[in-house]
Amino acid sequence: MRLDDKGACFLTIDVGTEGTKSAIIDEFGRVLGISYYEYKLEVPSPLWATQDPRIWWHAVKETVREAVISSKIDPDRIAAIGVCGQMHGPVSLSKEGEFLYNQPPLWCDKRNIQQCLWLKSKIDEEALLEITGNPITPAWMGLKIRWIKDNLPHIYEKTYKFLTPKDTIICMLTGEFVTDFSEASGSYLFDCRKLEWSPYLAEILEIDLEKMPKIFSSHDVVGELRHDIAREFSLKGGVPVIAGGGDFPCAMLGAGGIFVDLAVDIAGTSSLMAVSTEDLKTDERLLNLHHVINGKWILFNEVEAGLLKWFRENFAESEKAVASMLHRTAYKVLDEEASMVPIGSDGLIVFPHFIGERVLGRYNFKGGIIGLSLMHTRAHIFRALMESIAYELRRILELIEELTKVKVCAVRLVGGGATSPLLTSIRANVYGKKVELLRNYQGGLNGLAMLCMIGLKFEGGNLNKILERFIQVASIVEPDREAHEKYENYYNAYKQFYDIIGHFYEKDHF
Q1: Please, what's the b/e burial string for 49-80 (b: 16 or more CB within 10 A of its CB; e: otherwise)?
Q2: What class does CATH assign to 307-438+475-503?
Q3: Of the residues 63, 90, 186, 415, which has the fewest C-beta atoms closer than 10 A?
Q4: How far apart are alpha carbons 414 and 436 in whole angstroms?
Q5: Contact 448, 396 (CB under 8 A)
């Protein structure tokens, strides 16, 4: 399929936790125009994490207009629109599409810990694991909805549909209330064996399934761009909009993560380690989401919080100003400082659980720094943050290999962290595995363009042919044996400290 002899393009939108990104990508995976709008994660109380949904919509409008302008393409070449976004956060919408609550709990929000404990006391978690594919954690959308019902009953009653952030944007673009399998599978209201909303789970959580949207495959066309919105974007109305998926599952596809022996390391606000599996594999220490590719699942876990941005915002104000003048980023300046610090940050270990922890289920775990001395500098702490995240991701990778019985041969790194040579080398040396970097590190946007092509039957909708167009390994970072051996000692020390300190957070001591 082609719209003209210059080829088709796709408008892709990623509604992230730290900002929204929009891009125009052509049918060969080339980014023709891109724009980013940054905003803050609001933390009004400990363990809360929220944003006003109106900020996302404003960011979408700003970035889409800028991406279209910077691409310099004829808007008529845009063949389809795809949206992905931060997952699990229930946005309360009226039947008219109005926002009813402007502090929705986001994916990393843990204000619903009591709802999790209530559910654990009410039901056999092992039995739920077989239905949901997942342990009980505060991340899941259904448990967040239950918090809304318990604490804001008037909002719950008025809500026509609960939509995730990306589905909220699709509603704004098309007027349709829909979701996809990747988002539904992260709700704790979804039967992962039957691939449908579960009346049984809804009854347990006492949530009305009528408030949940219809589920589609990620490549399905679910609506068309409204003409009034199209005029705001300087686009034509009626452009097909696909169901899309969660930002993480889309990034899996955008990285070519459909093979069980290839791990994908997504370095964004959260840091995730994941592999694709043919069958659902359950373990209380790991999580599952339906892939944006039908017939596949994603086995993963993650480190939450946006730690590097937190550090930049609180300890690098002067670097932000200097970097701006030099047309660089503050992260690059911090990277250069941290690269001068030796492996292991001179004995400094950071616990990266600034808003709780998922891997071993200690929801109340807080961040911490072990081994501080007067010799340590800001650069030591920044590097130690990078190293601690890598330690946690390695722990996840080892759990995945243990469960799947498959030895991962390579780790493919995507997301903003893929632009940092220091972060990349730390990951390779901690994992002891080669790290692959792609020509296009914008995993989520890349995946959306591929889903648009599947939905519109480019290349006959053949996934392998589309992957050949989009996935190109630009470079490979091999682990250094000596560095890996040094990190082995720090990794073991990290786990030992974690086990000692973690016990203090098993109860509500803090």
Answers
A1: bbbebebbbebbbebbbbbbeebebebebbbb
A2: alpha beta
A3: 63
A4: 9
A5: no
H or E segment to which residue 19 belongs = strand 19-26
- For the CA atoms of the chain, what is the radius of gyration? 22
Residue 353 corresponds to which tokens in the numbers above?
């659980």
Same fold yes or no, 9-243+439-471 and 307-438+475-503? yes
pLDDT tens profile 164-222: 999 999 999 999 999 999 999 999 999 999 999 999 999 999 999 999 999 999 999 99
Distance CA 255, CA 497 (A): 34
CATH architecture of residue range(s) 9-243+439-471: 2-Layer Sandwich (3.30)
Q: Count of alpha carbons within 13 Å of 453, Cβ hemisphere only?
A: 30
The model carries a pTM of 0.90
34, HSE (Cβ side, Cα atoms, 13 Å): 15
Residue 504: closest CA among 374, 366, 381, 396: 366
Count of residues for the chain? 510
Contact between residue 39 and residue 79 where contact means Cβ atoms under 8 Å apart:
no
The H helix count followed by the E strand count for the chain is 18, 22
Please, are residues 108 and 87 in contact by the beta-carbon 8 Å criterion?
no
For the chain, give every domain's residue range: 9-243+439-471, 307-438+475-503
- Distance from the first to the final alpha carbon of the chain: 59
* Helix spans in 301-442 (H): 307-315, 317-325, 330-338, 378-404, 421-431
Whether 359 and 397 have beta carbons less than 8 Å apart is answered as: no
Alpha carbon of residue 357 to chain centroid? 16
Are 88 and 139 in contact by the 8 Å Cβ rule? The answer is yes
How many Å apart are CA 163 and CA 179, to the nearest integer? Answer: 7
> Quick one: CA dihedral 241, 245, 248, 252, positive or negative?
negative
Q: Is 305 left (phi over 0), alpha (psi -120 to 50) or beta?
A: left
